[in-house]
Structure formats: C-alpha cells, structure tokens
Amino acid sequence: MRLTMTVVLVMNSSAAAPALCYQVSPGSSITGRIRVPGDKSISHRAVILGALASGSVAVTGLLEGEDVKATIAAFRAMGVVIEGPVAGGVTIHGVGLHGLQASAEVLDLGNSGTAMRLFSGVLVGQSFRSELDGDASLRRRPMRRITEPLSAMGARIEATTGTPPLHITPVSGLHGIDYVMPVASAQVKSALLLAGLYAQGQTRVRELAPTRDHTERMLRGFGVKLSVAAGKVAVQPAQRLHPVNLAVPADLSSAAFFLVAASLAGGSNLLLESVGVNPTRCGVLTILQSMGARITRLHEHQVCGEPVADLAVSAAPLQATDIDAEAVALAIDELPVLCIAAAMASGTTRIHGAGELRHKECDRIAAMVAGLQSLGIEIHEHRDGMTIVGGRLQGGQVDSFGDHRIAMAFAVAGHLAQGPVQVRGCENVATSFPGFVEIACQTGFVIEPYRI
Ligand code: S3P
Fold first, then answer.
1. Residue with CA at minimum distance from ligand 1 atom 4
2. Could you say which of 39, 333, 399, 403 is catalytic?
3. Is the pTM here over 0.90, yes or no?
4. What domains, with CATH codes, occur in the chain?
5. pLDDT at 4
6. Distance CA 449, CA 24 (A)
C-alpha cells in the first residue's frame, strides 16, 4: 500500500477558518481494490423515507458525509430518533407520515441542495411551520424550481429572493398536479413525489430527459403505489410507508474520479466494489466507454431495488466525444471529472445542454474552464457547455470554489499532470466523499492536504 499524506497546518491570523488545500503530485499507475463510500442520493432518501416510515428501518452502507449528516440532524430536530451512524449503519425509528414535530430551530441543511429540495416536498405536507437554510453556496442555489410547482399543489412555501432560506407555512390540504418539469432535475421530481404522498388525488411529473429514479424505486420498496412510464411518473397519496431495511451501494459519482484516473494513468488496474449502476446514473460509464475506456461490470446484482456491480477499470487511450443534453442528465455530477478525461483525450470534446452545471454547488462550467485554462488546456466556455481540446495537463494552481466535485476532479488532474497541482478550497470534499485523500492515496495518488 502506498500512502503519502502530510498534513501541514499553517494558521493565518484572520478569524476565518483556514482553507483546506491539496498539493497533488504527478503519479503513476492507479491500482488495487477499493470501496468508495455510500451513494449520496440514496443515503438522503434512506434517511428521509426511514424517518417517515411506520416503524424502524436499519440502513447499512450509508454515506457518512456532511450532507447526509445534515439530513440526519434535521430529522432529529423534528423528533425522529436515529441511532448511529456507526460504520455506515443507522437505525431510524420512523414516526410515520404525520409523526414529525416542529423543529425549535431553523433546519440547517449545510451544503445540500438535495436535502433542501426533498425536505421541501415533505414539509409542505406537515401541520407545522418550518424554516430551511444552508451555507453560503446553498443560499445561492435556485429554489423557484420547487416553490412554484409546490405552490401549484396548494403549498405555502416562500423564498423571498428565489434562493434559501425557505419558509413553509401549513395549509389545510395539498392537491395533486400534472407537472411538466422545465429542467431535468431528480431533485424537483422527488420533491413533488414526496409532496404527492400528502396530496389529494394523483401527482404526475413529466420529465424532458430521464433523471435518476432512486426516489421512485425506494418509494415502491416502502409499499407506495407508483406508476412509471417513459418520461412520466405518477404517485398516489399514501396512508403509511411500510418499514424495510436498506443497503446503500457505493456511489458511482465518487467512483467516477477513480474511473477517469485509472483510465488515463498508464499501467492502471483497479477494482471498485459494489458500485450502484442504476441506468439513470450510468451516463459516466457510457461516455467513458464511448471514449475508449476499458471498464467492465462484474457480479451484477440487485440490492434493495438498485442494480449494483463491481467495476474493473484499466488504462486505455481515450478519444474525444460529444456529450448532448440527454447524456448530460445521466452524468450530471460526473461532468467535472469527465472534463479532465476530455482534457487528456485525443481530439476535441464538445459538451452541450449542460446549463444546469451553472446551478450546482458552484458554477461548474466557469470553474472547470478557469481551472483547466490554468493547467494549460485550450477550453472554450459556452452558455450551456464547453469545448475542450485534448492536450497535456501542466502543473499549476486551481480553485475549486468550495465545490467538492471540482476539488476532486482537479485532484485527478494533478495525478495526471506534468507538474504538481495545488487545489484550493477542498473543505467540502467531506460533503460527499469523507476519506477521499486516504482512499486515493491507497490507489497510488500522492496528495498532501495543507491549510492556508
Ligand atoms: C440529486 C440530483 C441531481 C444531482 C445531485 C443529487 C439527487 O441534481 O446533481 O447531486 O439526489 O436527486 P438535479 O436533479 O437537481 O440536477
């Protein structure tokens, strides 16, 4: 095992917490066998549906990232007893669909857009007021995409400026709607389906491009009546959620950093265990394979309604590709690291229909363009995408803008670059991937975290 980690603590005199940075040195092959932490999307939903179930739900493999911890803390503040997490295990003593209590405090959802939007769907159905807030990044994220359709269901939910904080006031009842989503968003779809549990009549959501369907799969597992057809999902109001135990697969979005690094670092051979390979998440595999990546699925099976497989990846030359809006929706969180693959591929990669990237934890188009330019790559920014000319990554300094996925994408760039890369603003890596540096170093990365 190769483990290179030096923690250098240089405190500055200002009161603000020192920023966490990574110094990433160029490395060689990526090898071994790893299991990345649990899927973030599925972990949030496990806690939410577990809390609303009529009885106790044991979850294994839960992501113990900051985002999911914020979800757990918020349900505790609403009276739900949750044991753990210990080594990915939690037991949630569900209080039933109508058993939540008003929180004495504002619900602080940290950095998590998923929590903010899914909670909104649940809380508009409650008989108490709620206020939802988050960190500076979450306070910049658009919320009209949920406040408008939830209001059309009869909810009272306000975001004065269209961004958090959100204020929810109880209403006497919600009613189902038939909603065509103007953006491809699983968070919006999920918020409406969760509100639909509390509404009179059917709630139907139509999507222009397929988005992740974990909510649909998990609701079914909890006994909710749901009809799913191409581009349409409809939910009936529920009396109760039947408690079921859950096992969370490893997160394909976290695995993606290693899939790209191992594809591009010569001589690599890596096995990623028990990764979720839900077809609505597999865009990253399809795109990498279309670029020439050697990725094989082994031991495919289902766990709690979700497809899971081990992924074997070995180094292969990559060629440029075109990524369109439908492919974007299936790989939305993996696009930052796919930009690194494009920067090292032969030829010019074009990404279109990716305007949603501007509304993530940071503006991910602007962040990738700035970072790749400073590492010597020719990249052109468009309103809804990028054109990336494959070349050689140089060493240099990049800013993650506090975005976990940008930070890890540039850690991959650092491994593949000709010289060391310093990545600034890595404190939020723990929102989705606690232990990233340790796991990366096990596979052959050379990352030294330090603070400035
Ligand atoms: C998520 C959906 C995606 C994704 C996010 C998690 C979810 O957001 O970017 O990290 O768990 O539903 P959108 O569906 O809003 O694009």
1. 333
2. 333
3. yes
4. 7-38+250-451 (3.65.10.10), 40-247 (3.65.10.10)
5. 44
6. 9
